[in-house]
Amino acid sequence: MFHSLDIVIQYVASPFHLLYFITPKWIRRLVGPPRKPARAAKTARAFAREEVRNHKKNMSPGDPQDFTDFYLNQIVQSTGDPAATYDEHNLVKSMLDLFGAGIDTTAITLYWALLYMAAYPHIQATVQKELDDVLGPSPVICYDDRKRLPYTHAVVHEVLRYSSIFSTTFRRCTKDTVIQGFPIKKGTTIAAILYSSLFDPEQWKTPHQFNPNHFLDEDGNFVSKEAFVPFSAGHRVCVGEQIARIELFIVLSSLLQEFTFRAPEGVKEMNMKRQSKSFIVRPQPYTICAIPRSATGKEGPW
């Protein structure tokens, strides 16, 4: 399913998708949808529908276990309500939205994080020292530990800022308004460039450098920044922001507790160039070495 969603996402962000939809409708009907993305979408929908069927067979109405269970309960509860919009078709689309927007983005951010750790070994070493000094031999890292790990917490935030994997978000104006002197009519689609905030030289000391100190005060305490908006902002902020923050902190901290990441032998410099084949900005494909810290002679829970 992930592979299928990736095909669809890459197609939607491609010039071919735009070209397809600006052609007259009769041409689109004549040529039909592009075969590969259409097959991929069909595969993903079939997978989601099968999961819905499995949930309907096995769920206990009074004990929902996940989003799908809750949604199915809502369908039942809204039966007979002519204004209700809950149905299995919308459930399948919602499931695919959550997987497509929530899983791939977190994974790609981790790809960037490991690339940065290999590219900036002094930052990686500082994180590992903080983990060793604060957590000691503890084999489990919890999200609450971020309060005791300000540098590690700052590194996670800097990964999100510097990678800026989703730099543009779209909104529709709900009423006539004026922004910095420009009149915006109700119904206008607005493209908000998050990149402009995440790399604003008036907000960040070294915007085009990977610098965790952007999120630390003079005493080394973690500080948040209003310009930090990788998940967008407002009522339509990313619904998965909190779980993404939790996953990134725990997974990256756990990996750095166990491993040191380095470029392969003979590689002098990691490729930091960005590729954008879809809405999500990915790093160029790279190879990296994960060396168990026990092999380096470090003391700890390894």
TrEMBL record:
Keywords attached to this entry: Heme, Iron, Metal-binding, Monooxygenase, Oxidoreductase
Record-given protein name: Cytochrome P450 2J2-like
Gene from which this protein is expressed: LOC107110698
Entries under Pfam families matching the protein: p450
Annotated organism of origin: Gekko japonicus (Schlegel's Japanese gecko)
Family stated for the protein in its record: Belongs to the cytochrome P450 family.
Matching Gene3D superfamilies: Cytochrome P450
Cofactor(s) needed by this chain: heme
